[in-house]
Design a protein that fits this description.
mainly beta; OB fold (Dihydrolipoamide Acetyltransferase, E2P); 58% strand
C-alpha cells in the first residue's frame, strides 16, 4: 500500500482569496514546448484549494496537495504557505 506522502504536490500563487469560505484559487504556471513551433510557452491552470484556517491572501506562494474530492471542483488542499505576499 502506498503512503500518504506519494500524493501529487504543486507550487503556485494565490489569485483569489476571501470570496469563498475556506477556499482559495491557486494558479499553477507550467512551461511546455509548443507541439508545432517548438517554442517554450507558459500554460496556466487554476485550482480551487481547501484552506481550512482561511490564512492565505492574494499573492501568496503556496504548496498544494492532491486529495479526495471535497466538493464539486475542490480536489486539492493547502499544505503550507511558502512565502507571504509583500
Amino acid at each position: 500500500m502506498e503512503d500518504r506522502n506519494s500524493r501529487l504536490t504543486k507550487i503556485g500563487q494565490v489569485v483569489s482569496a476571501g470570496k469563498m469560505d475556506k477556499t482559495v484559487v491557486v494558479k499553477i504556471v507550467s512551461r511546455v514546448n509548443h507541439p508545432i513551433y517548438k517554442k517554450v510557452v507558459k500554460k496556466t491552470k487554476k485550482f480551487k484549494v481547501h484552506d481550512e484556517k482561511n490564512e492565505c491572501g492574494i499573492g501568496d506562494t503556496v504548496m498544494i496537495m492532491e486529495t479526495r474530492p471535497l466538493s464539486k471542483d475542490k480536489y486539492y488542499r493547502l499544505v503550507k504557505i511558502i512565502e507571504k505576499a509583500k
